[in-house]
């Protein structure tokens, strides 16, 4: 199982790198195509919306035909569209390729989380998820670095060629492992029954609250995150390579979390992890607004990344408990709502930035995410950590 988790972490690495590589590239792409940064933000939304929307399709398919098989096949298809991003000559063409990247990659991270939840008991799951998210964190670091250095020293399109080849290689490796797994399950794939599962999740107060929090997380965290690179460029005039390195601090904060996750569970417990993580993230947004020099943004982003994963990884574990019998379907719904929130957030904060500036956007996000974490921490159910997990 450990080797499969390593492969899934590698899948997460390349998916998150594709997802986040546009962060430092956004001002350059806006300039090349003669658009504002807010308008160029469509390439973020173009990925996020289908990535979220098609969760509701791939979740049931993963439950029926095998989660690992679906992940491997989807990543193999995605490599075509990642390379297509590098071949795009217009903003509209790039947005279209990003759309299909998001569509194909929708089957990857949520089904990987659901597979881990199938194999690992709930009380032991947070530390295992912590090891798995190393792939997500490193992907976020790589996305910032690759995007920044490509923009500064190479043609930005080349980074998509590299990531496309990586998708193909990782998909092939996972497919060989997935084929050794069990045959397709007897989970029903009739859409009336799938719809009944989704409706049932919204009817229960606890699951409804987890889904709503995931949606607002997408708006308030992922929505504003897309503009950090543009903020550094606009406010401090940094070159793209430096922007990429500063943005990496967010990912390094996640690495600190992953290294300490088990100790954090024993020390804080899940409730305080949610409340403190969201509050720390909100405070770091405020620090960014009033940072007098650019290098102060790096430690602020590191702490923001730590706070984000403190909050987000706990929410992911909560999401894996939405359903015991159709876990892939349930997790897919949660991620669907998360990325619908991101799509709305990128649009909303893009308009807010274009009209009122980055400071207003960051302060709105700070107040919202801190309030969200504190509210949900008082209502969530928790799992006791097991020694040696």
* CATH hierarchy, class: Mainly Alpha
What is the average of the pLDDT values? 84
Tell me the fraction of residues in β-strands, as a range: under 5%
Can you name the CATH architecture?
Up-down Bundle
The total tally of domains equals: 1
Q: H/E element string? A: HHHHHHHHHHHHHHHHH
Question: Your description of this structure?
Answer:
The protein is an all-alpha fold and 389 residues long. The protein has one domain: Growth Hormone, Chain: A (Up-down Bundle). It has 17 helices and no strands. The radius of gyration is 19 Å and the shape is globular. Residues 383-389 have low confidence and may be disordered.
Concise overview:
This protein is mostly helical. It has 17 helices and no strands.
Key attributes of the depicted protein:
mainly alpha; 389 residues; single chain; globular; disordered C terminus; Growth Hormone, Chain: A
What topology does this entry show?
Blueprint: H1 2-20, H2 22-32, H3 37-40, H4 42-53, H5 55-65, H6 67-86, H7 91-105, H8 109-119, H9 122-153, H10 158-178, H11 191-203, H12 205-225, H13 228-236, H14 240-290, H15 297-319, H16 327-356, H17 358-377
């Amino acid at each position: 199982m450990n080797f499969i988790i390593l492969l899934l972490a590698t899948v997460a690495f390349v998916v998150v790198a594709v997802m986040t590589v546009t962060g430092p590239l956004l001002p350059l792409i806006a300039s090349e195509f003669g658009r504002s940064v807010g308008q160029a933000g469509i390439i973020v939304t173009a990925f996020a919306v289908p990535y979220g929307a098609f969760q509701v399709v791939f979740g049931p398919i993963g439950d029926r035909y095998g989660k690992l098989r679906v992940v491997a096949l989807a990543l193999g298809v995605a490599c075509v569209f990642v390379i297509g991003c590098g071949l795009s000559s217009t903003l509209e063409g790039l947005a279209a390729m990003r759309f299909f990247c998001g569509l194909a990659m929708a089957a990857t991270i949520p089904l990987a989380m659901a597979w881990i939840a199938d194999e690992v008991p709930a009380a032991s799951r947070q530390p295992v998820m912590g090891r798995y998210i190393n792939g997500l964190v490193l992907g976020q670091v790589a996305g910032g670095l690759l995007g920044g250095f490509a923009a500064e020293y190479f043609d930005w399109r080349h980074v998509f060629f590299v990531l496309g080849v990586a998708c193909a290689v990782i998909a092939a490796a996972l497919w060989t492992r997935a084929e050794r797994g069990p045959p397709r399950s007897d989970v029903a794939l009739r859409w009336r029954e799938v719809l009944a599962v989704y409706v049932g999740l919204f009817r229960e107060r606890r699951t409804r609250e987890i889904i709503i929090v995931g949606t607002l997380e997408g708006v308030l965290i992922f929505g504003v995150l897309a503009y950090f690179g543009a903020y550094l460029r606009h406010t401090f005039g940094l070159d793209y390579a430096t922007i990429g390195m500063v943005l990496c601090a967010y990912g390094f904060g996640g690495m600190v979390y992953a290294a300490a996750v088990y100790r954090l569970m024993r020390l804080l417990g899940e409730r305080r992890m949610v409340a403190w993580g969201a509050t720390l993230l909100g405070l770091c947004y405020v620090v960014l607004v009033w940072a007098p020099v650019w290098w102060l943004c790096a430690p602020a982003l590191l702490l923001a990344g730590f706070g984000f994963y403190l909050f987000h990884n706990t929410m992911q574990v909560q999401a894996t408990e939405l359903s015991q019998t159709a876990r892939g379907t349930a997790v897919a719904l949660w991620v669907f709502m998360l990325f619908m929130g991101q799509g709305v957030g990128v649009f909303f904060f893009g308009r807010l930035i274009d009209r009122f500036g980055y400071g207003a956007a960051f302060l709105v996000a700070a107040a919202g995410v801190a309030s969200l974490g504190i509210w949900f921490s008082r209502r969530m159910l928790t799992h006791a950590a097991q020694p040696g997990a």
